[in-house]
């Protein structure tokens, strides 16, 4: 079967402009039209924005029981820092939390919120019963995860003696406000 060659008409660049391009002339900026540059950069960080972010590095943390410290937010918990604060230049914090049992509701069940941009909790082991404003009570078991929007009021109601939680928070430093019941 013989193939036919189609004749292609060569069109010079100015003649190939669309009607829209002809109506709104765009100034050329470094070889690109201003319109194209605007569309291409939408949703992407500009070089200036990239420079403003803290430099990040790799963080590796291996499980060791001796790394759990009673130096965190709550007296009824120990925390294993995962090195994310340093690795992210303070942009984020991640730690494993062991809540110390048995649960004492008078100490634990205090309504509060965190002034954060993002907070996520994942149950690694055991269970925890929580209250979150707008959501009510929830029993979170091993494998459960939840996010807490910024400044959402919440509290822990009860937990198993073996509970371990992974918590990720942005930014690393934040304010916690306890509320009266």
Properties at a glance:
181 residues, alpha+beta, three-stranded antiparallel sheet, 12 strands, single chain, Jelly Rolls, 5 helices, five-stranded antiparallel sheet, globular
Any overview of this molecule?
With 181 residues, the protein is an alpha+beta fold. The chain has a domain at 65-178: Jelly Rolls. 15% of the residues lie in helices and 33% in strands. It is built from 5 helices and 12 strands. The chain has helices at residues 19-23, 34-41, 47-52, 84-87, 105-108; strands at 28-29, 32-33, 77-81, 93-99, 112-115, 118-125, 127-132, 136-141, 145-147, 154-159, 164-170, 175-178. Strands 3-4-11-6-9 form a 5-stranded antiparallel β-sheet, with no helix packed on it. A hairpin with a 2-residue loop joins strand 1 and strand 2 (32-33). Mean pLDDT is 80; it is low at 11-29 and 31-41.
**Alpha carbon gap, first and last residue:** 86 Å
Q: Quick one: CATH superfamily of the domain at 65-178?
A: Jelly Rolls
Main beta sheet, described? 5 strands, antiparallel
Number of strands: 12
Shape descriptor: globular
Q: Please name the CATH architecture of the domain at 65-178.
A: Sandwich
- Helix-strand pattern: HEEHHEHEHEEEEEEEE
Low-confidence stretches: 11-29, 31-41
């Amino acid at each position: 079967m013989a193939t036919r060659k189609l004749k292609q008409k060569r069109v010079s660049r100015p003649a190939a402009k669309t009607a829209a391009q002809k109506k709104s002339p765009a100034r050329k900026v470094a070889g690109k039209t201003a319109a194209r540059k605007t569309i291409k950069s939408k949703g992407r960080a500009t070089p200036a924005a990239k420079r403003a972010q803290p430099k990040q590095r790799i963080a590796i943390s291996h499980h060791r029981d001796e790394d759990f410290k009673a130096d965190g937010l709550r007296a009824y918990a120990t925390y294993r820092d995962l090195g994310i604060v340093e690795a992210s230049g303070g942009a984020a914090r991640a730690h494993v939390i062991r809540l110390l049992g048995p649960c004492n509701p008078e100490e634990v069940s205090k309504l509060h919120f965190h002034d954060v941009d993002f907070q996520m909790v994942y149950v690694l082991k055991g269970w925890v019963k929580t209250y979150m404003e707008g959501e009510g009570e929830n029993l979170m078991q091993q494998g459960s995860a939840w996010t807490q929007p910024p400044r959402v009021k919440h509290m822990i109601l009860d937990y198993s003696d073996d509970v371990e939680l992974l918590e990720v928070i942005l930014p690393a430093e934040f304010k916690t406000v306890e509320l009266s019941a």
